[in-house]
Automatic annotation (TrEMBL):
Biased amino acid composition, Basic and acidic residues: 255-274
Protein name per Swiss-Prot or TrEMBL: Exonuclease domain-containing protein
Domain of life per record: Eukaryota
UniProt GO molecular function: nucleic acid binding
Native species: Cryoendolithus antarcticus
């Protein structure tokens, strides 16, 4: 907000007042600098205003330039509304370098209307405005549009307004806001711009939305994100290496492994005699002993060495070095390198080292 008494009410830029590609009109009143060494005086921005096609001010501020050795500031006559007090930061003037930067940001990629553009462009002090406008804007000079009016090659804005628009401007004082609005009217007379239709089109295709109290322009398509959760999902999809995303993936995989392990009963595994202990009641095994045990579902196959006999086996344990087990079994006695088969009525969870791995 401008300080009390500041004559420029819009001291900070309002880019939200401009549609993409909407023409903008610029007018400024200058301040003069006098060099002590006798060099030619130079003009730079005193007050500048930028308006849109319906006359709203996107910027209206005074520019405060730093003091320089060997340079004196000189203000124009009072009717131009640029007094020494207006150029003080304490009274609402903004740093000139910042003001010039704001101007370039507001005017990028749009038609820009001046009245006597050559004179105004020279008043930018910190940046090469001529190059900027050539590279990033389409310049229109209403003085050129009105060439020859009233037998004048360079008619004044007041003359153009009176003879073409039927309006009287620049009475006792010059306001850059009024002048920029008038220049825009002259431009729109030859190059109409239907702002309402353009706004409706942007709202329909989703390139226009409201944020808070302002109407902001955004390049994001309509309904790309509908809420916080969707934004988070989109962010994680676009950033798979994000730390929190990796953590969720690890937790998900671990949950899958735990679930699979909980319900995974051993189906096809081979164990050595060190992995499964055999508890017998009066059983005997001779010579080569038990060489291998194969577990297939609830059937245990004992592979015996040559010349081995085993008898009276009544129970077995699946857990290595555990005191559990003792499942009842049906068995036969075989020998000489054949297989002893015993069948249990229980389905026993395999030890975790033999369970199927889940990726």
């Amino acid at each position: 907000m401008a300080p009390l008494g500041c004559r420029a009410p819009q001291i900070s830029p309002r880019p939200d007042l401009f549609l993409p590609g909407e023409p903008a009109s610029v007018d400024l009143e200058d301040q003069e600098i006098v060099f002590d060494d006798g060099s030619k005086n130079q003009h730079r921005i005193g007050r500048i205003a930028i308006t849109n096609t319906i006359g709203q001010s996107g910027l209206d501020t005074y520019a405060a330039y730093c003091n320089e050795d060997g340079v004196r500031k000189k203000v124009p006559p009072e009717r131009f509304m640029v007094a020494k007090s207006d150029l003080l930061i304490a009274n609402g003037a903004q740093p000139a370098r910042l003001v010039e930067k704001w101007v370039m940001e507001l005017l990028t990629d749009r038609p820009v209307i001046f009245h006597d553009k050559t004179s105004d462009i020279k008043k930018f002090y910190h940046f090469d405005a001529a190059k900027f406008f050539e590279d990033h804007c389409t310049l229109i000079d209403t003085q050129e549009l009105c060439f020859g009016l009233d037998d004048n090659k360079k008619p004044s804005l007041a003359t153009c307004a009176r003879l073409i628009l039927g309006e009287e401007i620049q009475g006792k004082v010059h306001s850059p806001v009024e002048d920029s609005q008038t220049a825009m009217k002259l431009y729109l007379r030859d190059y109409p711009y239907d702002r309402a239709a353009m706004l409706a089109k942007m709202k329909s295709d989703g390139t226009y939305r409201k944020v808070g109290a302002y109407s902001m322009i955004c390049k994001q398509p309509k309904n790309t994100y509908k809420g916080k959760a969707d934004k988070k999902t989109a962010f994680n999809t676009a950033n798979p290496n994000n730390g929190s995303t990796k953590k969720r993936v690890r937790k998900l995989k671990q949950a899958q492994r735990d679930k699979a392990a909980k319900f995974d009963v051993e189906s096809e595994s081979t164990h050595s005699t060190d992995d499964i202990s055999i508890t017998t009641a009066g059983a005997s095994a001779t010579n080569g002993g038990i060489t291998n045990i194969t577990v297939e579902s609830n059937t245990v196959n004992l592979t015996l060495g040559a010349g081995v006999s085993i008898s009276n086996m009544s129970s077995y344990n699946f857990a290595p070095n555990s005191a559990g087990g003792g499942h009842s079994a049906n068995h036969n006695t075989t020998s000489n390198g054949s297989t002893q088969t015993c069948t249990s009525s229980d389905k026993v969870l395999a030890h975790k080292k033999y369970r199927t791995k889940v990726d």
